[in-house]
């Protein structure tokens, strides 16, 4: 066996990124895909960067969608939203129109990963990855959303619209062809006679892949259910629509007996798998419980009861603007303002922003730490154009032309910031490894909410792990810094 064969999958060298193309329009992006067979689109990079790092293969070209003009726009009509193909989860979380008119989608987006992840991760990327555990899919399917797939035929952009319910062909596979892009997502609003909710069971509160997730929409005439749609995730190879749900609910008045019968019918209908997160039996049992509780919340008019007031976004970044370089290889020096100074450095194509800051720059920015290199721990948090992001998941080329702020920007010479002083005073530091990430996320949180509530601190720092201090002193330090500034 070769040495490579003996390595664990996370130790094996993955596919190298040799070139990043940065088109400024959908038309140019479609042209880049067509003209570079095998090129991969990248939006937030939160799935793709890890996929490439874990999968050995030939060097790849990326077509970066983060600078496509209009990709992050949200249009609204009387009965629907049209999301650009680059809309991020935090754009949905931060826009109160979605809580009012498409509650299941807002609830799903809030549960995805962490604030830093949601600042980059897109709905289109969530759909295209096509994992049955991807949370926004059950919300979109329950709302009967559709995607617009575009491709170039000659010089003309040709579109087709596909219902989200028809988008998936199997585990991690879709009808999207290699030369097609999701350029828009149509999301119908809940009508006056409809109610919806989205629920998830994970093994922890944040950064948790779903054991089960579900979006549901009920239509009622007076008190009687006339239609019912349930999409269930993590219980089959794709997110699935439930027939049993509709059959059990239509014609009832959503009373306790109907809720109990429906929850049992759905649990009996699914054939989930055993995996590292849960056994099939456990999945079946909790699915019944989850659906029963979701229906009870709808019946009681409490579907939005757990929606937090002012969930911190940690500075939502709207991608866009003109990229400085349209094509970046490792020989192309990119230009980035790092902690207020303009830095011009090469080596950006094949690396992440984290590694570029730490290894390619002279002098290096070593205040940024690598904990997991998988978007899980938050140690690498930096602010990119104001928004907190996991720099280990950002292809460095995407930072060309942006403003990056690291932990090294917080102090004024020898004078610590109020947040840094509070961490010292409240004994919020032991080994210190996680602290740069907490400080950058914490400073973004304090920009969002000058005097954050306990709930805002919990939500805002959900993407940062500490293995030794414990979270109480860290939360206290953020609270104290908020009061003192
Ligand atoms: C630590 C961590 C936690 C996570 N937690 C969750 C979670 O709780 N719930 C959840 O659902 N997901 C979670 N994810 C997965 C991931 O963040 C989401 O799937 C995210 O929405 C992907 O979007 P992206 O823009 O980053 O996609 P990218 O990584 O840029 O792309 C993903 C795939 O989509 C393709 N693609 C991107 N945009 C388009 C487009 N416009 N048209 C066609 N193809 C496109 C890419 O080629 C690639 O194959 C987590 C990931 C990490 C690393
Ligand atoms: S989240 Fe980036 S190093 Fe852990
Ligand atoms: S202080 Fe040691 S990991 Fe947080």
Structure described in brief:
This protein has 17 helices and 20 strands. With 485 residues, the chain is an alpha+beta fold. It folds into three domains: 154 residues, Beta-grasp domain (Ubiquitin-like (UB roll), Roll), CATH 3.10.20; 226 residues, Uridine Diphospho-n-acetylenolpyruvylglucosamine Reductase, domain 3; 75 residues, [2Fe-2S]-binding domain (DNA polymerase, domain 1, Orthogonal Bundle).
Key terms:
single chain; 485 residues; alpha+beta; Ubiquitin-like (UB roll); Uridine Diphospho-n-acetylenolpyruvylglucosamine Reductase, domain 3; DNA polymerase, domain 1; 3 domains; 5-stranded antiparallel beta sheet; 5-stranded mixed beta sheet; 17 helices; 20 strands; binds flavin-adenine dinucleotide; binds FE2/S2 (inorganic) cluster
Description:
There is one protein chain. 31% of the residues lie in helices and 21% in strands. It is α+β, with helices and mostly antiparallel strands. The strands form 5 sheets. Strands 4-5-10-6-7 form a 5-stranded antiparallel beta sheet. The chain has a 5-stranded mixed beta sheet with strand order 17-16-20-18-19. Strands 2-3-1-15 form a 4-stranded mixed beta sheet, covered by helices on one side. A hairpin with a 2-residue loop joins strand 12 and strand 13 (224-233). It is globular, with a radius of gyration of 23 Å. One FE2/S2 (inorganic) cluster binds at residues 429-435, 466-469.
- Average pLDDT: 95
| Class by alpha and beta content | alpha+beta
Strand order of the largest sheet: 4-5-10-6-7
Q: What is the total tally of β strands?
A: 20
Instruction: Quote the CATH topology of the largest domain.
Output: Uridine Diphospho-n-acetylenolpyruvylglucosamine Reductase, domain 3
